[in-house]
Amino acid sequence: MKVQIRYLGDPILRKKAVEVKVFDNRLQELIDLMYEYMYKYDGVGLAAPQVGLNERFFVIDDGQTKRTVINPHILEYLGEDVEYEEGCLSIPKLYATVMRPEGIKVKYQDVLGNAVEEELHEYTARIFQHEFDHLEGVLFIDKLTVVQRAKIKSELSQIIKETKKSLKQLSEE
Ligand SMILES: [Zn+2]
Q1: CA 170 / ligand 1 centre spacing (Å)
Q2: Catalytic residue among 36, 85, 118, 131
Q3: Residue burial 18-57, b: 16+ Cβ < 10 Å; e: rest
Q4: Is the CB of residue 102 less than 8 Å from the CB of residue 123?
Q5: N or C: which end of the chain has fewer CB within 10 A?
Q6: Coil, strand or helix: which one is 124?
Q7: pLDDT by residue (tens digit) across 25-80?
Q8: Whole-angstrom distance between the N-terminal and C-terminal Cα of the chain?
Q9: What angle do CA 15, 65, 127 make, to 5 degrees?
Q10: Residues, Cβ < 5 Å to ion ligand 1
Q11: Domains of the chain
């Protein structure tokens, strides 16, 4: 199976991903691949749309616990909104402070399809929310203030330009 990281400007990053229904070897293989890519690119999370799969799952590693998260739901937001600097493997080398709730109560399925429910806080909650957004077609740059966005405007258009160029090359091959 061949997958590759998708970058800002690739339409798949803006699609709402669809629910996973089959928990089989294919899913396990994709998840293994995603962990591999996540570590290779020094990420702490990677969502399926970021490797071109329009499906509702992601992997995260907060440095203490690895989590394979399938068909997630955020049941409740906890605590206050806090600032944290975010980046994204699909938007290389750009970082910005994003406001999000400190904690969340979530439910999802593991790789075998078993239901998991837990409360996440701080860094773990942050990564979870960022990856969850990917399944909705939302990117962290959507959450920036007008001023923040203006500051990185030219970098963003540069990434989009390069993505469009490589997508065009791919389609001509
Ligand atoms: Zn991301």
Answers
A1: 23
A2: 131
A3: eebeeeeeebeebbebbeebbeeeebbbbbbbbbebebbb
A4: no
A5: C
A6: helix
A7: 999 999 999 999 999 999 999 999 999 999 999 999 999 999 999 999 999 999 99
A8: 19
A9: 35
A10: 88
A11: 11-172 (3.90.45.10)
Query: CA dihedral in degrees (66, 83, 95, 75; nearest 10)?
Result: 40
Q: Which of 79, 81, 92, 87 is nearest to 127 (CA)?
A: 87
Q: How far is the CA of 60 from the centre of ligand 1 (A)?
A: 11
In which residue are the tokens 């061949």 written?
Answer: 2
How remote is the CA of residue 23 from the centroid of ligand 1, in Å? 24
DSSP state of 144: S
Known active-site residue 131: yes
Place of tokens 């089989």: 24
Q: In angstroms, rounded to a whole number, what is the distance separating the alpha carbons of residues 76 and 117? A: 11
CA separation for the pair 83, 167 (Å, rounded): 34
**For the whole model, what pTM was predicted?**
0.96
Question: Per the structure block, which two tokens stand in for 96?
Answer: 């910005």
Q: Report helix, strand or coil for 163.
A: helix
